[in-house]
Each structure stands twice: as C-alpha cells, then as structure tokens.
C-alpha cells in the first residue's frame, strides 16, 4: 500500500494521508482513502479523478451527496464509499493509472489535491509450465532445449531459470531467448511470456545423478510462482558406441518434447 503524507504551507486545508495501492489484483475490491484536515473550515466538495476523468464526487450539502461519473470498466461501491473513502469493486486491468483526490472548502474556496499511481495486475492462469525435460536419462555433453511458459497475465510475467537453485544468465554454454505473445482475442487483452534455455549438460550441473531445473515467474511485487523438474543423468560412462546412442536418444527426446510443447501451447492459448 502506498501512503503519501502531503503538507501545504500556503493553504490551510490539507490532505494528510492518501492511501492508494501501488499494486492491486484484478477482480478484487480496493479502497482508496483520502484523509484531510479542513483547519476549522467547512467541507464543500470531494472529487476523485482517474487521470483527467472525474469519476466520484461527494458534496455534503446536496440532497444526493454522492454523484458518479462514467469511466469505462470502473465500478464504484456507493454503499461503502463516503467523503474519505471510495471503494472500487471487481477491479479491471484498465484501472491502472494515476488517481487524484481533490478537497475543496466553502467560503474562501480553498482547493488542494494529492495523487498516486496504481497498477492493476491480472495473475497468470496457472503455472509456470516447464516443457522439454527428457523422460530418458541424459549424459554429459547432451544438448537440451527447455522452455518455461507463463500464460495469460497482465502485464506479462518475468521468467527466470535456475539450475540447482543457481539463477541462470546468458553466458558461454547457455543460451536464453525470451518471447512475448499478445493474446489480442482476450477481453481484457492478456500476455503470455516464454523463456527458452538451450545448454549442454556439464559435470558441474550434476548433483547426485540429477539436475534440478526450476522456473520462476514474477509480476511486480504482487505475484510469484515457480515450477521444478528433475533431469536424471547417467553417471557411469559406457562404451563410445553406447554413449553416442544415448546422446542421440536424449537429443531426439528433447526435440520431440519441444515440438509437442509448441503444439500444446498453441492449443492452450486458443482454448483458455
């Protein structure tokens, strides 16, 4: 929750605390709070804006104290709103933006404003998902192509791979590629992120005959998800012919798994 303390030396009316969440989850209800000090003056009006668009007005002397103004995809809970708090229902991702509270007094008609930004996040639909891990044992020197996917969020999730709990970066021997898919048919529009990792199995990757592959997906400070899979490694080398055989099998399995992942991904994006 972002809390701003705002003080004025030239105006007697003050906004003491403006509480607007920095990050909020889509589909949830969120209160926006504007706590003010009138310094013995009388309140004339409270106004709330999203960007430049007024959406809420509170006038204590009017017969209908609360007046709403249409902002697309915004839903105000009038029953839980008053002069200091506005409650937004069932947040839509389009509600990301800057929110301004404006307080005005009667008489000399002083006005003061405070504003803060809010980002509305739509969480991914499950996952993240790891594809391309062979079911067969692999051996030192095999090349693997492993993909991590986080489906349909807003904004897109940031993906990172970990090998044995060590974060992977793009360096010699490891290739990382990132992809972004914009799901334009979704309402609201969502994004899917993919991280592809290609590497050769090395001795320093192996811990007790296996390699732990973990993918972590994060969105700002609001969401974190991860998935771990194991790759089993042959620790006793056989003859060269046998080694080549197993290496060929592992490579084919990795390629087949990747092709299967691409097909399933396209189907999943189309159906979800």
From TrEMBL:
Identify the SMART domains for this entry: IG (SM00409)
Q: Which Pfam families match?
A: V-set
Signal sequence extent: none
Q: What range(s) does the Ig-like domain occupy?
A: 11-104
Can you name this protein? Ig-like domain-containing protein
């Amino acid at each position: 929750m972002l809390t701003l303390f705002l003080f004025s030396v030239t105006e007697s009316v003050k906004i003491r605390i403006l509480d607007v969440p920095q990050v909020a989850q889509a589909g949830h209800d969120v209160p926006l709070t504007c706590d003010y000090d009138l310094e013995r003056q009388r309140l004339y009006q409270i106004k709330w804006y999203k960007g430049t668009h007024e959406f809420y007005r509170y006038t204590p002397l009017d017969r209908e104290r609360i007046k709403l103004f249409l902002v697309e995809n915004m839903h105000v809970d009038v029953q839980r709103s008053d002069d200091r708090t506005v409650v937004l229902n069932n947040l839509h991702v389009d509600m990301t933006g800057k929110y301004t509270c404006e307080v005005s007094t009667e008489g000399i008609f002083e006005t003061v404003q405070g504003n803060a930004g809010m980002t509305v996040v739509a969480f991914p639909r499950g996952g993240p998902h790891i594809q391309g891990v062979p079911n067969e044992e692999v051996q030192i020197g095999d090349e693997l192509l492993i993909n991590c996917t986080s489906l349909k969020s807003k904004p897109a999730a940031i993906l990172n791979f970990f090998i044995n709990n060590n974060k992977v970066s793009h360096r010699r021997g490891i290739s990382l590629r990132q992809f972004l898919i914009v799901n334009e048919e979704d309402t609201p529009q969502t994004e899917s992120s993919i991280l592809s990792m290609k590497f050769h199995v090395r001795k320093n990757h192996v811990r007790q005959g296996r390699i732990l592959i973990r993918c972590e997906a994060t969105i700002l400070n609001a969401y974190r998800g991860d998935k771990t899979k194991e790759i089993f490694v042959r620790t006793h080398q056989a003859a060269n012919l046998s080694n080549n055989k197993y290496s060929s099998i592992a490579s084919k399995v990795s390629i087949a798994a990747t092709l299967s992942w691409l097909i399933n991904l396209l189907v999943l994006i189309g159906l979800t």
